[in-house]
Amino acid sequence: MRKLLNTLFVTQPEVYLSLDGDNIVLLKDQEKLGRVPLHNLESIVTFGYTGASPALMGYCAERNISIVFLKMNGEFLARVIGASKGNVVLRKKQSLLSDNERESAVIARNFIIGKIYNHKWMIERMTRDYPLRIDVAEFKEASEHMSSMMTAIRECEDLEQLRGLEGQAALSYNKLFDHMILQQKEDFSFRTRSRRPPLDPVNAMLSLAYTLLAHDMTSALEAVGLDAYIGFLHRDRPGRASLALDVMEELRGIYADRFVLSLINKRVVSAGDFVRKENGAVLMTDEARKDFLAAWQTKKQESIVHPFLGEKISWGLVPHAQALLLARYLRGDLDEYPPFLWK
């Protein structure tokens, strides 16, 4: 159980939610785990689907407190809310800003600043931890280039120009990604990003990690009442969760890329975990994919201190924290959307 930005997160499995007066009571096997006053809550997010009492759902619906049900892996199931009040206004504001390319660029640039900042942090961390195993001068040069890109992006109000600056920074980062692979170099290397299909084991794992991250981000956005398919940087396309792709930009490197690198460098995966198809696609074996998913879920349980909120949360709640912050910005409660800047 975790309260964050007036949202109660229930992360323990098999917990039933009930009402007692003006309080939510958390029960597991008839044992009371906790009791939280409802008067200050805006929403309740529960991982797992044991259920909630009709009395609690009715109480929350009358007071515009949403209850969101997610599977234990973070997959969105349902959102229960009463007569629409704030959510219509929120989604209308989201749509209006998305239709305005200048306003979209002003929001999108913070996603990209977060992405580049975190890539820069990863590069700086490598120079600090492995100065004898990498070309420090090359890494420092890339770090300085990223700093200059962030300065330019901070003043950018044009989407096409923003994408160009982001692309330049991405080139610097991608050139060094292979150098961050420190173990099993004979089996794992990175030359360029290949998606459909992935053409090597590293790209196969990156594609799976990005899919999982997008999945978690989509659920987090839906949980706060935003439309995950109306983006700012990524424009509307049928079937694409554009806003989820927007917000996850700042988490790609620090969350997904580092996860994949750790699996390689800690020798959790090996060459035998992959198969090559006739069309050149490289895929994980069924058993390796199960191990990958289990490791991803374990990663989501690790605790960190959120750099903006200053509160201790799990990695798995970071997408939810960012979704809450974005919703607050769109409502006018924050002057600017605060990207996740890892320290």
UniProtKB/TrEMBL annotation:
Its cofactor is Mg(2+); Mn(2+). Mn(2+) binds at residues 166, 234, 249. Its EC number is 3.1.-.-. GO terms for molecular function: endonuclease activity. It holds the Pfam family Cas_Cas1. Keywords: Antiviral defense, DNA-binding, Endonuclease, Hydrolase, Magnesium, Manganese, Metal-binding, Nuclease. InterPro entries: Cas1, CRISPR-assoc_Cas1, CRISPR-assoc_Cas1_C, CRISPR-assoc_Cas1_DVULG, CRISPR-assoc_Cas1_N. Homodimer, forms a heterotetramer with a Cas2 homodimer. Belongs to the CRISPR-associated endonuclease Cas1 family. CRISPR (clustered regularly interspaced short palindromic repeat), is an adaptive immune system that provides protection against mobile genetic elements (viruses, transposable elements and conjugative plasmids). CRISPR clusters contain spacers, sequences complementary to antecedent mobile elements, and target invading nucleic acids. CRISPR clusters are transcribed and processed into CRISPR RNA (crRNA). Acts as a dsDNA endonuclease. Involved in the integration of spacer DNA into the CRISPR cassette. This is CRISPR-associated endonuclease Cas1. It comes from Paenibacillus aceti. The gene is cas1.
